[in-house]
Design a protein that fits this description.
Blueprint (H helix, E strand, L loop, with lengths): L4 E2 L20 H14 L4 E3 L9 E5 L11 H8 L2 E13 L3 E7 L2 E10 L2 E7 L5 E7 H14 L10 H16 L8 E2 L1 H6 L1
Parallel strand pairs: 1-9
Antiparallel strand pairs: 2-3, 3-4, 4-7, 5-6, 7-8
């Protein structure tokens, strides 16, 4: 089932999410719905707060990037086959020199900006079967994970922009939270909730 994606301005996007245990109700159904929602919106990642749940859960599937000719054959292959569920994730370290990449977010449609992040991460997480993994990732896969991880920490990519950039997009962000935007996927707008 495709779920509505929570728009910029909703308080749930600012909460530090809580860990869950393997007896979390209907987890398999939730994961299936989240993957369907992410694919329905042509996303490469989706975090639980983006569907209104303040829990430490996010998914990543970088396959859409595998068509990008800017990447080497090896990178395209990695991106094509990277699909992962992250539960109760903790980034243990981020290393290397920061690099810029143009990021967007399903909760902030039509806003894309260059964001600087470190290229390598070490992360501990549980998969959908609650097996614990500690892994290192780099490049674009690391970046997508960092972006989704920020969501479970209550951080949005727009928080990482310069003061000037934030001022320049302020009215666009206000319009998103009011629902004054055309999107081709289901969304829930915070300003519209209050009117009812």
């Amino acid at each position: 089932m495709i779920l509505p994606i929570v728009a910029y301005g909703d308080a749930v996007l600012r909460k530090k999410a809580e860990d869950i245990s393997k007896d979390y109700p209907k987890l398999d159904e939730l994961l299936a719905n989240m993957y369907e929602t992410m694919y329905g919106a042509y996303g490469v990642g989706l975090a639980a707060p983006q569907i209104g749940l303040p829990i430490r859960l996010f998914l990543v599937d970088t396959e859409p990037f595998s068509e990008d000719k800017d990447f080497t054959k090896e990178e395209q292959e990695q991106l094509k086959n990277f699909k992962r569920t992250f539960i109760n994730a903790k980034i243990l370290e981020e290393t290397g020199d920061e690099w810029a990449f143009n990021e967007g977010c399903l909760s902030i449609p039509d806003v894309r900006e260059d964001v600087f992040r470190k290229p390598k991460i070490k992360i501990e997480y549980q998969d959908e079967n609650f097996n614990t993994h500690t892994e290192e990732f780099d490049g674009l896969i690391a970046r997508v994970i960092q972006h989704e991880y920020d969501h479970i920490e209550g951080i949005l990519f727009t928080d990482k922009l310069s003061t000037l950039k934030k001022r320049l997009i302020k009215s666009r962000l206000a319009n998103i939270s009011k629902g004054n935007i055309d999107v081709d996927y289901r969304m829930r707008f915070p300003a519209m909730k209050k009117k009812r």
